[in-house]
Amino acid sequence: MLSARSLLPVNLTLGVVLVVLLAVAAGVAYWFGLSPNPSVNRPREIAVAGVRAAAQLAAVSLVITWAVTRLAGLAAFLVVMFGVAVRTAGRRLTSNRTWWLTAAPIAAGVVPTVAALLLTGLVPAKGLVLIPISGILIGGALTVTVLAGRRALDELELRRGEVEAAMALGLLDRDARMEIARPAASDALLPGLDQTRTVGLVTLPGAFVGMLLGGASPLMAGAVQLFVLIALMAVQAIAVAVTVELIARHRLFRPGATSRSSTSL
């Protein structure tokens, strides 16, 4: 059986390779001008993200034992994960006070799914199992919330005239905005959909590989990975739906945006 140590040894060579790969990523972004506008320094963001990832994983390595063996530690760890996801998603979408509403799409998908898994006994209430599964689901909800929100907000800004024309024809503000935002936001589901459709053919995802390294049979590893992928699609679909609804109702918006809607949630 292949061990984790033989798969990726932690030594000086690994450190050097990681630094080189990070430099390549930042260098390519700089050379080809992959920043969306002059106010965004994408190469710097890539470098900072890599350093932050290293620091955060080091910190997690120090506290994970405490978190998975104590109920208070487990709860605190999950709350921190959720809070960071909300903050990250919110600030990717807007700089005004509405950023915190990204908690709704992330929680709407993740909380019922995790609760159902616990109540049915499919997932035990143990940190060693609950933390990675919750992390995968929260991360998936974070990703589609950002993608759906940015696409919807960008489309509404670009096609503002169409929204006003639809309202002139009698549609409510929410309905007019929904007609523009929903098709664009639905593209956020494509990465997860493609990952599920091509699993085993193009990639072997982390849960599958991790189970194999832990000594599980290929059948068991495949069942766990299938469970993760299906649960993730459910979470992401809910997150996109809630995100679009918040934007269509003008609850989540960018600075300077105005609304003529009198509807409420």
Automatic annotation (TrEMBL):
Pfam families reported for this sequence: UPF0014
Transmembrane segments: 12-33, 53-86, 98-123, 129-149, 199-220, 226-248
UniProt subcellular location: Membrane
Domain of life according to the entry: Bacteria
Keyword field: Membrane, Transmembrane, Transmembrane helix
Family matches, as InterPro entries: UPF0014_fam
Membrane topology recorded in Swiss-Prot or TrEMBL: Multi-pass membrane protein
Record family assignment: Belongs to the UPF0014 family.
The protein's name in its UniProt record: ABC transporter permease
UniProt organism field: Streptomyces rugosispiralis
Lineage start: Bacteria, Bacillati, Actinomycetota, Actinomycetes, Kitasatosporales
